[in-house]
Amino acid sequence: MNTARFVVAMRRGGAQTFRRPQLLLAAYSPTVQCCLESTQAVPAARLPYRVKLSAGKHYAWCACGHSKKQPFCDGTHTKKAQSISPFRFTPEKDRTVLLCACKQTKNAPYCDGSHLKVIYQDVVKYLKGIFK
């Protein structure tokens, strides 16, 4: 790249000239792609959501992973995962909690660390793809 092109690129913001390096390991992606129809929950994210809950308020935790308003349900399961319904709960006191995003928890809707298993499976899958 000659000096004149460099100066013009910098005046335009430089973003068009220089590219960001792409992340090679999919396990560190903050979101997961969804499939069209599913009978199993799809991980919405790799890590849990930290949420402030109000006492006495009714919540519907997305159990299918397709909701655009994660970690709460927006009704998308009626089209994409009809066999999975949201988990409804009402907290007894105001508090900040970690709500599961990987949808693999045994203590729904709260995170129990199952996302580590999901991340591990993604890393194994990625490494198997490299060494084929």
Automatic annotation (TrEMBL):
Transmembrane segments: none annotated. One of its GO terms (molecular function) is metal ion binding. InterPro entries: CISD, FeS-contain_CDGSH-typ, MitoNEET_CISD. Coiled coil: none annotated. Residues 46-83, 84-121 form the Iron-binding zinc finger CDGSH type domain. Its cofactor is [2Fe-2S] cluster. GO terms for cellular component: mitochondrion. Keywords: 2Fe-2S, Iron, Iron-sulfur, Metal-binding. This is CDGSH iron sulfur domain 3. The lineage of its organism: Eukaryota, Metazoa, Chordata, Craniata, Vertebrata.
